Amino acid sequence: MALLLACLLALPLLAAPDAPPGDAGGAMPTPAAGAPADRPPSAVEPAAPAAPAAADAPVITVWTGATLPAGQRGDPQKWVNVLGNVTSPVTLTSLSYTLNGGPSQALSTGPDNMRLARSGDFNIELDYTDLRPGANTVIIRAVDQNGGAAQTTVTVNYRSGELTWLPQTYFYDWATVTRVADLAQMVDGPWRLDGDSVRPTVFDFDRLLALGDLSWRDYTVTVPITVFAIDESGYTAPSNGPGVGVMVRWQGHYRVEGDSQPQTGWRRLGGLGWYRWQRDGDQYTEGFEVLGNGGRLIGTTPKTLNFGVTYMFKLAVQSNFDPSIPATYRFKVWPASSAEPALWDVERRGFQGEPSGGGLLLLAHHVDARFGTVRVDLLNTRPRPILTVLTDGPGGGSVRLSPSATPRIGEDVVLTAAADLGSAFAGWSGALSGAANPGVVTLFESTTITATFTTGGNGIAMPVVLSSNP
Predict the structure, then answer these.
(1) Quick one: which H or E segment has residue 311?
(2) Helix then strand then coil, % of the chain, to nearest 5
(3) Which element (helix H / strand E) includes 149?
(4) 200 alpha-carbon distance from chain centroid
(5) Cα 110 to Cα 202: distance, rounded to the nearest angstrom
(6) pLDDT higher than 60, residue 306
(7) For residues 286 and 377, what is the distance between their CA atoms, to the nearest angstrom?
(8) Which residue has the higher pLDDT, 11 or 453?
(9) For residue range 337-360, what is the model confidence (pLDDT) as tens digits?
(10) Torsions phi, psi of 64, nearest 5?
């Protein structure tokens, strides 16, 4: 098995396109034109952790502690994130981690003007399909320029398949837990409980909490949000304006051009209903907007938001009876002290190529905000994706899949083409392109891939089993 794994790792992998055509990467789009506004209050966050003056080695802090639950409340995205910070009295030369004794993986440290907000911040992205049931051991190791080293262990307790999602109402009540990780997954943080609510403690690029499951298709999310202040560094690129709101049909970050680690692509989404602030010189504008797949604008509403006042944000996604037509997104906002209005502020279709399902995100982008109990009215779920593999061309051959069982949503499937004797593998078409072999496709949706074989090659001699039985 070890020899086979080494051989596979040595082969070139052909991945499905990481980013949609024209994807602008991790940067936020400029807000839609909003209403003129006064300068909003500025957020003041706690000071960053200082480097230990007397320590002779780095110090690693994991924000979720030594244990991290995952999967017991669903798989809201492809990744399980292990977040933290490393400080050192001298220059850090390396930061890395291993999962269950596997190969060492290098980690980037902040700041990077995007997901890694402060000096020393790190974000480990574990593919949930790589986690085994029960305890998974993540060892994080830091080394400084003087040879000082530190190591810490995080146990990710993964439980999957215990939930059967029914068409009913689900509540995420922060008052029922003692830490954020027991109810939601921190995608970017840190976050803290604040009474019956949850709140980011660092006000920077896309502080995110994920809830729900990748299988969720059509649902409505309602959450009270109170905004207190704005981080003024969020007006410049790549942030391009602070914002706060809710996203539906989220599947996880993905790699875009120029990425290292963590990944910054975010535009594969269903809908994002949020409030944005923009500054042009000494002029300020603000307003609500709904973004769809690709980060494109679905619609706006002229309503405005007051600081320190709690508002109900309600965002719904409903599939079309014709699967070739994008889903409809509905968004409304009203003061929590008032009755819910009958009409939606925005009610429009999304865009082609959008995900058919996914979890939900609470999003605070350079904003000090508090999120209350989340209500989800789930209408239906989607099944696991189906990969259909065809062969074509004058030659003959077959394709081996790993894993061979029906993949989970978002799972990476390796396709290895094996030509018959006298034939040669010519390339992939459909969800894969090119001729690298093996190829890899990440399955969020059902798709078809064709392997083409030509004549005249050497092929692969498959073993022949002889039997003495008549």
Answers:
(1) strand 310-318
(2) 5, 45, 50
(3) strand 149-158
(4) 18
(5) 13
(6) yes
(7) 29
(8) 453
(9) 999 999 999 999 999 999 999 999
(10) -90, 0
What are the structural domain ranges in the chain? 51-381, 384-455
Structure tokens at 385: 């994706």
As to burial, measured by CB atoms within 10 angstroms (0-12 exposed, 13-18 middle, 19+ buried), residue 20 is middle
Tokens describing residue 95: 């930061």
Task: Classify domain 51-381 by CATH architecture.
Answer: Sandwich (2.60)
Cα 58 off chain centre by: 29
Could you tell me where the beta strands, DSSP code E, fall in 159-235? 169-172, 185-188, 191-194, 197-200, 207-211, 216-230
- 176 by Cβ neighbours in 10 Å (0-12 / 13-18 / 19+) ranks as exposed
Backbone angles phi, psi at 167, to 5 degrees: -70, 90
Per-residue confidence band for 429, with pLDDT thresholds at 50, 70 and 90: very high
3-class state of residue 405 by DSSP: coil
Give residue 358's Cα distance to chain centre: 10
Residue range 65-123, pLDDT digits in tens: 999 999 999 999 999 999 999 999 899 999 999 999 999 999 999 999 999 999 999 99
How far apart (Å, rounded) are the C-alpha atoms in residues 10 and 8? Answer: 5
207 exposed, middle or buried (CB, 10 Å; 0-12, 13-18, 19+)? buried
Residue of 301, 364, 372, 351 lying closest to 331 (CA atoms): 301
